[in-house]
Amino acid sequence: MIRKFASVVLLLILGYAFYSLVAGFVPDGELNRSAAYYAENTARETGAQNIVTAIIVTYRGLDTLGEVTVLFLTAAIVAQVLSHSRAPAGTRGSGFLPAGELLETGTRLLVPLILLFGVYVFVNGHLTPGGGFQGGAILASAMLLLLLADPMRRFSHRLIAKVESISGLTYVALGVMGLVLAGGFLDNRILPLGQFGALFSAGAIPLIYSLIGLKVGAEFSSMLESLEETEDR
Questions:
Q1: pLDDT confidence of residue 87
Q2: Which letter, b or e, does each residue of 45-54 get, where b requires 16 or more Cβ atoms within 10 Å of its Cβ?
Q3: Which of left, alpha, beta for 186 (phi over 0: left; psi -120 to 50: alpha)?
Q4: What range defines the domain where residue 130 resides?
Q5: Residue 37 domain-assigned?
Q6: What is the Cα–Cα distance from 125 to 210, expressed in whole angstroms?
Q7: Comparing C-alpha atoms, which of 57, 43, 72 is closest to residue 130?
Q8: Does 26 fall in a domain?
Q9: CA-to-CA distance for 211 and 216, rounded, in angstroms?
Q10: What does pTM read for this prediction?
Q11: Has residue 6 been placed in a domain?
């Protein structure tokens, strides 16, 4: 009873705090100095139609590298922990029911479309909302659907590791090229900016986001595969 009462009190306090923040919020009348610079100069300097993407990939490219690194470490830690897990004896791979025909057929039809949509999201990230992280998560969702349709399915750890490693190394290499050939780490002007609003525009941003998408998709797929192997034991 005391625990429930304390939980209710805590929720009321949090609710009041959030209400005070929302009720007292007053939007700025004008952009601050940094935001105004990005709004006025991003399209001209990067050639990207999507200003958010340009900021993430170029102006704060080092932060994006840190985010990808954190995701890689998360996938590695999950795989390491699960590799040392032990399930009760006698439960190895015997508890799965066969997938229905509807799920199997739907999977064969949907997986290619999901993969295509994931590629579309990160290739067009410089033009429309989306990008490498979102596209990579969509790619991993196709792997999840395959595992749901066939829990005994196995993916190649070697292939996933190669995609992840090559994408990460190429991403860092492009960042270094930005330092050497342009104005800073991950400066997209190492390639021509092209025509504003066209698919092949914004310099190296489409290539950078494609690499991020492949790396994120491989990392999520690696975690799903590790979780599935643990369930089979």
A1: 47
A2: bbbbbbeebb
A3: left
A4: 49-86+101-232
A5: no
A6: 9
A7: 57
A8: no
A9: 9
A10: 0.71
A11: no
Main-chain dihedrals φ then ψ at residue 129, nearest 5 degrees: -55, 135
Q: What is the token pair recorded at 154? A: 């196995």
Q: Kindly report the average pLDDT of the chain as a whole number.
A: 83
pLDDT per position as a tens digit, 5-36: 888 899 999 999 989 988 888 877 888 888 88
Q: State how many domains the chain has.
A: 1
Rounded CA-CA distance 68/212 in Å is: 8
Task: Please return the burial class of 120, using the count of CB atoms within 10 Å of its CB with bins 0-12, 13-18 and 19+.
Answer: middle
Residue 160 C-beta-side C-alpha neighbours within 13 Å:
23
Q: How far apart are CA 196 and CA 217, in angstroms?
A: 28
* Neighbour-count burial of 136, counting CB atoms closer than 10 A to its CB (0-12 exposed, 13-18 middle, 19+ buried): buried
Q: Are 136 and 64 in contact (CB under 8 A)?
A: no
DSSP strands (E only) in 122-220: none
Among 214, 204, 228, 87, which residue's Cα sits nearest to residue 151? 228
The residue type of 181 is L
| CA-based nearest residue to 207, from 223, 187, 226 | 187
Please tell me the distance from the alpha carbon of residue 191 to that of residue 203, in angstroms, as a whole number. 5
In a domain, 9, yes or no: no
State the Rg of the chain over Cα.
Answer: 23
